[in-house]
Amino acid sequence: MTRLRLVRLITCLTFAALAAPTVDAQVQVDFPLSISNLPSYDRVNGLSLPFGPTITFGDGERLVVTPVITYRSQLGKIDPSLSVVGQLTSDSTLGITLTGARGTFTNDDWIRSNLLNSLVSFGLGHDSRNYFRADRGEARLTSALHLPIDVATIFAGVRTERDWSTGWRSGSNVGPLSILGRRDSVDGIQRPNPLINAGHITSVIAGGHAEYVGSSTSEMLDVFLEAAGKSPTGGSFQQLTINEAAAIPTYWRQRLEIGAHLVATTTSSFTPPQRYSYVGGSGSLATMDLLGLGGDHLYFVDALYVIPITEIDLPLLGNPYIAPHFASGAAAVGGFGRPVQNIGGRIGVSVFTMDYVVNPRTHQHDFGVGVSLRP
Predict the structure, then answer these.
(1) Amino acid 365: pLDDT
(2) Cβ-contact 168, 154 below 8 angstroms
(3) Which of 46, 51, 291, 355 is deepest in the core (most CB within 10 A)?
(4) CB 296 within 8 A of CB 239
């Protein structure tokens, strides 16, 4: 997709939004501040600065149009994007979402949130994501489910994109600034970015999202299924991605915190590297090099049993806690490969943590001090 074709796509989406027959004449323009449009920082883009309004047509957010331009300091690029979200029914049960964007994409944002990954990338150089560049367009039909939880939605649609490599192995040799890890090419800001197969992917997509937050329990589940009929490798593939997180109360004020991520793919000989996911290093399997395992099959399970020390109550921070910690994961092409396990413990208070884990097979160990934003 050339730049001209991308501009045409965004223009068509804009006209489609403005032509919607169910929208009245009321228009509201806002510049909201939210997690989704905060600046971010990583080893490929450098500083990403998004800017754009949210334009609402009609009462009840029947149609919301969000045009955004994002400046990428390391790449020296300005990326355009457009999102159009419309409600097809008066009770907002059925909707449509159209998106078109040129941007930098990753399959590894399940490891850390954008905010935390930005802080760790700038401070330590430990960017826990691999990237590729793409022009991507999507159309989704969405439906809200009436279930006794906070959020339950499903969707089905189509996606088309044109991908190409970015980062050190595509010609760049000077990374952005980080306070530590500036010359570290294994875990730091100079870590190479994998090459992908340049070309087009056209696919049918479907999935869902569910959330529940109670007084002591929280759960989140994301499911995404892609069936690609065209890819740069010359064949089709189907890929399932599941992301899960939960905090479950047990005895007294103790709780079990679980996180899991699964990627499973059919016909691995046709899976392009831009659909690989990675695991390893700080944020997942700490005894490994950062993102040391990758492929079109991946699983990762992380469990903490949090035991608060109620005899101590620190001002503003609350009760410190101790937590036995277990993590297991693997990733490879064509299968999950040999699992890596980490066993250890955590001491924490509020969002601040100290962790020690060991690989019981290799006896490799890791000690780290950090921040955790787990549920």
Answers:
(1) 96
(2) no
(3) 291
(4) yes
Tell me if 98 sits within 8 A of 17, measured CB to CB. Answer: yes
For tokens 């040391």, what's the residue? 292
CA gap 247, 302 in Å, rounded: 12
153, 156, 204 from 141: Cα distances, Å: 11, 5, 12
Residue with tokens 């149009």: 65
State how far the Cα of 1 lies from the Cα of 197, in Å rounded to an integer: 15
Mean pLDDT of all residues in the chain? 89
Report pLDDT digits (tens) over 192-231: 899 999 999 999 999 999 999 887 789 999 999 999 998 8
